[in-house]
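Q: Okay, next protein. This is Nuclease SbcCD subunit D from Mycobacterium attenuatum. I've checked the sequence twice, so it should be correct. Can you predict the 3D structure?
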Amino acid sequence: MRFLHTADWQLGMTRHFLAGDAQPRYSAARRDAVAGLKGLAADVGAEFVVVAGDVFEHNQLAPHVIGQSLEAMRAIGIPVYLLPGNHDPLDASSVYTSALFKAERPDNVVVLDRPGVHEVRPGLQIVAAPWRSKAPTTDLVAEVLATLSAADDTRVLVAHGGVDVLDPDRDKPSLIRLAELDRAVAGGLIHYVALGDKHSLTNVGASGRVWYSGSPEVTNFDDVEADPGHVLVVDIDESIPERPVTVEPCHIGRWRFVTLHNQVDTSRDIADLDMNLDLMTDKERTVVRLALTGSLTVTDRATLDACLDKYARLFAWLGLWERHTDLAVIPADGEFADLGIGGFSATAVDELVATARAGDTESASDAQAALALLLRLTDRSVA
């Protein structure tokens, strides 16, 4: 038996830094990743798809987001089982109980709206642990496992949330306890655990049967999401009592959120950064966050700004990671000596240079910006 394990679609997600047409393209890519499961399912012969929580970004969605999302699920063509997660719990405002969702839900889409066993077909069950609020006070998985008794059926547990061994706060009451999962697997109560919530592909524990699929499209930068963009193809051999499991990750994501750390002290460093940005492919689907440190002359800072302006037009988004950027701008000796100005204007430039060298103050920053603009206006830097 073969199926697809995915999670954290978060349809309707917006990223505040995406402007212009980048946000609509990003939203379309997330829907396309869902509809594209049809081709993957056909290629591998999958019976069904499980979505382990956070199908939607939240419960308050525009009607067109719900409609387009359901159409993407319809396109998959095989049964799709949706688990409510922390972003879209089964609370009073749940998207799953809205009139629009119920009216337009395709026949192949099934909401796992109650905890416990759901029959897929004779001999195959999904055990679901849906969220009913954004902040459960118990381990929902442990509660469901406690209701199970031994059976001859193949069972796939579909759950959402953090696992205790991966969370620094081990005392959170909602955490899924890996020891409970391992006991259920070892006892044959369940044969595979499809998890959602962690957006990077992650094999949990040593059994090889407990996995986070991660989000099929990236949602955050690479310091947070190390390995996004996957769907898992899961094989369970039902002909053997132990139900051996094989898991194959398939990368389907097309967007990238990249962080670059660069030291920039010279014009050569800026040229190297320019070359690295130029060599990056698929710029229209790439988000770049720059952590830059160093000391630059005003001329070099103006060159850097021109470089960043150019690539900001080419990438889906490019900008500075302010918390990790520390650029000092120090006018070099004689840097403004040959501008060809005199009198009051020359005196004003000298005062700006002195202020710019005064240190890390707002006035110094303003003076540095004014000097950089002056260089641009006199064609001393890259435009």
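A: Here is a summary of the prediction. The CA atoms of residues 181 and 193 lie 8 Å apart. The chain has two domains: 2-251, 256-381.
Q: Noted. On to the next one.
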